[in-house]
Design a protein that fits this description.
The complex is a heterodimer of chains A (about 150) and B (about 80).
Chain A lengths: L1 E5 L5 H9 L7 E8 L7 E8 L3 H16 L4 E7 L1 E3 L4 E9 L2 H18 L2 E7 L2 E4 L4 H6 L4
Parallel strand pairs in A: 1-4
Antiparallel strand pairs in A: 2-6, 3-5, 3-7, 4-6, 7-8
Helix pairs in contact in A: 2-3
Chain B lengths: L1 E6 L1 H7 L3 E5 L5 H11 L1 H6 L7 E4 L2 E2 L11 E5 L6
Parallel strand pairs in B: 1-5
Antiparallel strand pairs in B: 1-2, 3-4, 3-5
Classes of the chains: A alpha+beta (about 150), B alpha+beta (about 80).
Amino acid sequence: MAVRVQREDFDLGAELAALREGRTDIGALVSFSGLVRDDTGDLQALELEHYPGMTEKALAEIESEAHRRWDLNATLIVHRFGPLEPGEQIMMVAAASPHRKAAFEAADFLMDFLKSRAPFWKKETGTDGAKWVDAKEDDEAALKRW
Amino acid sequence: MTLEVVYFAWVRERIGLPRETVETDAATVADLVAELRAREDRYDLAFSDVSVVRVALDQVLSDFDASLKGVREVAFFPPMTGG
């Protein structure tokens, strides 16, 4: 289990390689990475603010809950903060398990809870100025699946 | 009691500062919010619709009915948008 909150970018391939390094018990490795998407063509920057201290605790708790629910060999959550540009990586999760289903479900679970329970906020700056991104009702509703 | 009160995202921008020390006898989060709103317009504006404000007590998500007994740090922020 590992959680990292960092300003700098990460290498998704290197993170996955490190996660399975020297292990022979992993049968399935699922990863997800979130990118800065420009829907309208005028996004100049995305600023990610977070709550240092609470962020790490919230992510670790979400990760622990995933390990309680599924048979997992390892998990990793990396989330960036600070100014990002369109196309950049924002975050990643990875879940390793002996079996595919647990790895897929755990990665999905980590994402759903991370979106609504980890203290991050996005602010988009475009040609019309800056605006805080609103939380989606769907994101909160998604938690009820679990 | 002395509380460290921290603000994030648009709550921070509306109030105009990231953190402050508050001397209060408020029993609950809701009482503290009422005290802050009575101070100045910028607080009143930030807390005008608490359905879009979340609260954490000592870095754990909580709610407006929660007691402040033993709490050191109160954080106010909008619904989270990570991922």
